[in-house]
Design a protein that fits this description.
With about 600 residues, the protein is α/β, with parallel strands linked by helices. It is built from 19 helices and 12 strands. It has 2 domains: about 10-325, ABC transporter type 1, transmembrane domain (ABC transporter transmembrane region fold, Up-down Bundle), CATH 1.20.1560.10; about 345-430 and about 500-580, 3-Layer(aba) Sandwich (Rossmann fold), CATH 3.40.50. The strands form 3 sheets. It has a 6-stranded mixed sheet with strand order 6-9-10-3-11-12, with helices on both faces. Helix 5 (about 125-165) packs antiparallel against helix 10 (about 285-320), helix 9 packs antiparallel against helix 10 (about 285-320) and helix 18 crosses helix 19. It is elongated, with a radius of gyration of 35 Å.
Length: about 600
């Protein structure tokens, strides 16, 4: 059974339509492949027919010259068939590679268009498996199985037509003899798609367990969860093994029936043809031609049937790859433009599918240009609120708007200019320092990149790199970055994106105190006049905010300045006393305007 949060799988009709679009995208090449294979098949039919002529010529007392001419014709036709078939296979491989490139490009585009919440709920293991194992299987099918099917499928069709044209009785014998093959293929196809889809889902499950275990390795070690993770891995591997045994069982039932069925048509043609020749109704050459045609039919038909397994596996993988077309999308670029930068949260509620409600009717207005700190105990809903403000998740009830437009209705480009969420988790992409920064602003010049790095205090160490902005990061040969450097690169991307609102969830948590203070001062200068919402897990940063919002049990319980909330002697004052071990002096002075960046 498919999990409710799993990425969708394309149906049979959707897969057929998608395959049709791929063929039409390179229609000329596909037509060339068909034409070459058809010509190769036609030349292949000439050999058995000429062999039958040789038999009849010999029985009629023909001389060696006639036999030699016919034998030379067989040689020429075989050579032409070989060259055309090789050309057709080469053209088929090129068609398959170009088509695979389109599949990969479309998959990447669709994956990048997925909202972060969809990926998180479905699990990165499933998306990774679809982008690696499934795309690879599709590539193997297009590159290897596809050309083989075209070549041998056309040959089998022409051979079957030649048998029927030679004598309708031979055609009937061939049809009856191959009936078990048709039955076995139909039975196999009826069950194979679901079996291979289940195998793909089980493979995704294994990848998800391994990815989650690797990502949380420190947590697993700290809490002694090793045995549980091993048990979860075993369960996922067992499920994967069961699905693989199921597909293996289908193949083991399919091929023995096929192998036996090949013998029946040839034996039938020889028996019936011999009887017809005995009664003078057919020449020996015709009997030989019919038997050779059916024997030749075994080769391409066997290749076609051998590729059925690969085609079914590839079809199931293509359904999983194409399934991203049906996944929820981020908004396009056609939404209305926000009239201003005011953020309004009205009656916002949010509940995770596998847990309870974490936001319970939050109402909040974030005024343009203000610094708002969001504080509260662990589990109060601070991070969830920050994700809603940044458009990562949509509220399950209520609304979150910017300038009157729902945040989740903004297209990626417009959203990036409006609101950006910066968390403790930062990723350094494979590529150069320049590549990592251009993600935020592809048109930025090197001077702008260096200015952004300087704004977050990272220009010094970047200038000391061997190739400066061109230094490769990550991978086997690239420079390894530590946590603070990765965080500074992420913050530099924020500076380049130039949003009007920044939502910070412990954005400088991984920096050492000296670097954190320097980064905060730099950000304070860069973000002057912008809206900043900081999730403050440590209360001292709240003193620099224009207002403080207190979250408790998914609700906004207090809102005001630091001094107002301390004097109100409510939840915030209790948190402040707990943090400092006593009540603060009355009218505590605000710190320097460094911005409420959480550390």
């Amino acid at each position: 059974m498919t999990a409710p949060d799993a990425l969708p799988v394309a149906g049979r009709a959707e897969v057929r339509r998608a395959a049709g679009r791929l063929v039409r995208a390179d229609g000329r090449a596909f037509a060339l492949v068909l034409a070459l294979n058809a010509l190769a098949a036609l030349f292949g039919l000439a050999g058995p027919w000429l062999l039958g002529r040789i038999v009849d010529e010999v029985r009629a007392g023909g001389g060696a010259g006639a036999v030699d001419r016919l034998a030379f014709g067989i040689l020429l036709c075989a050579l032409a068939q070989l060259l055309l078939a090789r050309w057709g296979r080469y053209a088929g491989h090129r068609f398959g590679e170009r088509t695979l490139a389109r599949v990969r490009e479309r998959f990447v585009e669709r994956a990048l268009a997925l909202p972060a919440s969809v990926v998180e709920r479905a699990g990165t293991g499933d998306l990774t498996t679809r982008g690696t194992a499934d795309v690879t299987t599709v590539g193997t099918t297009l590159r290897d199985a596809g050309p083989v099917l075209l070549v041998d499928g056309v040959q089998a069709l022409f051979l079957a037509g030649a048998v029927c044209a030679l004598d309708w009785r031979f055609g009937a014998i061939g049809l009856l003899g191959l009936t078990p093959v048709a039955w076995a293929v139909r039975r196999y196809l009826r069950r194979a798609r679901d079996a291979y889809l289940a195998e793909g889902a089980a493979t995704s499950g294994v990848a998800e367990v391994l990815a989650a275990t690797a990502a949380g390795a420190r947590t697993v070690e700290a809490f002694g969860l090793g045995a549980r993770r091993v048990a979860a891995s075993r369960a996922a591997l067992d499920a994967s093994l069961r699905t693989r045994l199921r597909t293996l069982r289908l193949r083991s039932e399919f091929f023995p029936v096929v192998d036996f069925s090949y013998v029946v048509p040839v034996a039938g043609v020889l028996l019936v043809g011999g009887a017809l020749h005995t009664h003078g109704a057919m020449s020996v050459g015709a009997v030989v031609t019919g038997a050779v045609y059916l024997q030749q039919l075994v080769g391409p038909l066997d290749e076609v049937l051998m590729q059925v397994e690969q085609v079914q596996s590839g079809s199931a993988s293509f359904a999983r790859v194409e399934g991203l077309a049906g996944a929820p999308r981020g908004a396009g670029g056609e939404s209305a433009a926000p009239v201003d930068d005011r953020i309004e949260v009205s009656g916002a509620r949010y509940a995770y599918d596998r847990g309870g409600e974490v936001l319970r009717g939050v109402d909040l207005t974030v005024r343009p240009g203000e610094r708002l700190a969001v504080v509260g105990p662990s589990g109060a809903g601070k991070t969830t609120l920050s994700r809603l403000l940044a458009g990562v998740d949509a509220p399950t009830a209520g609304s979150v708007t910017v300038g009157g437009v729902p945040v989740t209705a903004l297209g990626p480009e417009r959203l990036r200019r409006q609101v950006v969420l910066v968390t403790q988790e930062h990723h350094v992409f494979l590529g150069t320092v320049r590549d990592n920064l251009l993600i935020a602003e592809p048109a930025a010049a090197d001077e702008a990149l260096l200015a952004a790095l300087a704004a977050v205090g990272a220009d010094a160490w970047v200038r000391e790199l061997p190739d400066g902005l061109g230094t490769a990061l990550g991978g086997r040969d690239g420079l390894a970055t530590d946590g603070s450097q990765a965080q500074q690169l992420a913050l530099a991307r924020v500076v380049l994106a130039d949003p009007h609102t920044l939502v910070l969830d412990e954005a400088t948590a991984l920096l050492d105190p000296a670097t954190a203070r320097h980064t905060e001062r730099a950000l304070a200068a860069v973000l002057a006049g912008r809206t900043v919402v900081a999730v403050a897990h440590r209360l001292h940063t709240a003193t620099d905010a224009d207002r403080v919002a207190v979250m408790e049990d998914g609700r906004l319980t207090e809102l005001g300045t630091h001094e107002e909330l301390v004097e109100a002697a409510g939840a915030y004052a209790a948190l402040w006393r707990s943090w400092h071990g006593g009540a603060p002096p009355a009218g505590a002075a605000r710190g320097p305007s460094a911005g409420p960046v959480a550390d």
